[in-house]
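Example 3.2
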Amino acid sequence: LSICSRTVEPLEYYRRFLKENCRPDGRELGEFRTTTVNIGKCLCSITTADGSALVKLGNTTVICGVKAELAAPAVDSANKGYIVPNVELPSLCAERFRSGPPGEEAQAASQFIADVIENSQMIMKEDLCIANGKLAWVLYCDIICLDYDGNLLDASVFALLAALKNVHLPLVTINEETGLSEVNLKQKNPLVVRKHPVATSFAIFDDTLLIVDPTAEEEDLATGTVTIVTDEEGRLCSVHKPGGSPLTGAKLQDCITRAITRHKEVKKLIDKVIKSITPK
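Structure, written as tokens:
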């Protein structure tokens, strides 16, 4: 297969591979790219974060830093804290992104992450409350793409989960006499992560063929994408399908089955890394 045909007719070029049940990068249709995660090791510019992680999915590289701050709870949610996710796609991560205010893709990704946090109940906002109606934690979760080569959502959810697992919050009490908060930095407790959502994304080719973990090129050539989020109990937390080719019930069930398998792979990886950095 000449490189010329890939440039001139990229879709035909891909179809020749897909007919043989493989892809130009050598992967099978249901195969993920090599996935790695680093947790909490003085990552780049977010050494001040309370929890951090870096995830690589092939060439796609995403970093997540979680910063915890104290604030008063909302009047209508006196017993709850806040979680504020934000996804950034800076111009340095790919030519397609421009510097300036967040573009449509970054905004959609931020909303997707907010929905995953809410639907999966990975963090219960009640757990972030310190004193009812008086004081609560706000978790600012900044997810920055350093290198973009497709499948931003899977990498972002993984980086978020790994970073949250790395967060330790100091003990905070309210002084009865002064009414002021007192922070004990010597006594820190891990953040309670109640569920472990994992995202699995697919690109749809020619309305029928599903390939897992698409690259940027595959996303551009696809007729649609779908992202399935499951937790450790195999529960479906969310299905994200922004338009494109419709999926039959059977195809969707295939995606969910693959997503449950992927969850086990990611959970195993994250547990192994956490074990390796936990003091003996």
